[in-house]
Every structure is written in C-alpha cells, then in structure tokens.
Amino acid sequence: MKKAIRILGVLMLVVVTTLSFASCSNDDDPVNNDFFAGTYKGSISYNDGSTNNSTDNGSVFVTKIASGTKYNFAFSNGIPDLNGVEFQQSGDHTLVMVGGTATSYIRIDNNDLKILYIKDGKTWTANCTR
C-alpha cells in the first residue's frame, strides 16, 4: 500500500511539472504579464565612439522589473545592458519606451524587439525576434 501511494505521488509530481513547463511559452505577452522574461535573437550593436560591437547572431534577454512599467535589457556579446527603461502600452500587445522619438526608441511585443537607443553619446540597436 505504501508503495502504491509513493508511485501515485511521483506520478502526480510528474504531471504537475509537465503542465508547469507546458504553460510557459514564447508567445507570452510582455504587456499583460506581471512577470515577463524573454530572449529575443537577431541583429544587435553598440557604439560609444571608441567601441563598435555588432553581430547578426546576438540576443537580448528582456525582463520586467518589480515596478511593473520598467524593463531591463541584457545584451549578449559584451554589449552593456540597458536597465530601468520605462514603458507605456501602445495598442493591445505593444510597449513603447516613455519619451521615445523617431531617432531614439525601444518597441517590444511578444514577437519583436526593435531598439535604436541613444544616450550620452552611446548607441544601442537591436532588430530581434522570438
């Protein structure tokens, strides 16, 4: 009897674990989630006047921080991170950087990440998908 209960317990654990992993998806919407983390892959670059770093096979790991409106962007290939960037919703499933312009913006949705961010003579770019 103890062995049957133990087997049933292990099976229940496997089912719950499987469902937990199955509920995570690349289609998570950064707009409607209290917690968001996703990796976008594609073309990224950084230039600060003395350093020029770019690749077509880079990645950006995006996380929503506790404030609910600010996001962090961790770049691959030694490109410095962008942290604490504030966003507002634009449409149903898109976020745009607060204070963005045509020459400096970050736009993110569940499939695409577009960055042209200029600050203090430094320029970050990304054209990535999930």
Q: Could you please describe the fold and organization of this structure?
A:
With 130 residues, the chain is an alpha+beta fold. The protein has one domain (36-129). Helix content is 17%, strand content 48%. It has one helix spanning 2-23; strands at 37-47, 52-64, 70-75, 82-89, 94-97, 105-109, 112-119, 122-129. The protein has an 8-stranded antiparallel barrel with strand order 1-2-3-4-5-6-7-8. A hairpin with a 6-residue loop joins strand 3 (70-75) and strand 4. Mean pLDDT is 81; it is low at 19-27. This is Lipocalin-like domain-containing protein. Residues 1-22 form the signal peptide.
Structural key phrases:
single chain, 130 residues, alpha+beta, eight-stranded antiparallel beta barrel, 1 helix, 48% strand, elongated, Lipocalin-like domain-containing protein, signal
Task: Identify the strand order in the major beta sheet.
Answer: 1-2-3-4-5-6-7-8
**Radius of gyration based on Cα positions:** 19 Å
Fraction in beta strands: over 45%
Number of domains: 1
Low-confidence stretches: 19-27
Q: Output the number of helix runs.
A: 1
Helix-strand sequence: HEEEEEEEE
Structural class: alpha+beta
Query: What is the makeup of the main sheet?
Result: 8 strands, antiparallel, barrel
Overall mean pLDDT: 81
Distance between the termini: 48 Å
Q: Tell me roughly what share of residues is in helical segments.
A: 10-25%
Tell me the total number of β-strands: 8
Give the overall form: elongated
Keywords: Signal
Signal peptide: 1-22
Protein name: Lipocalin-like domain-containing protein
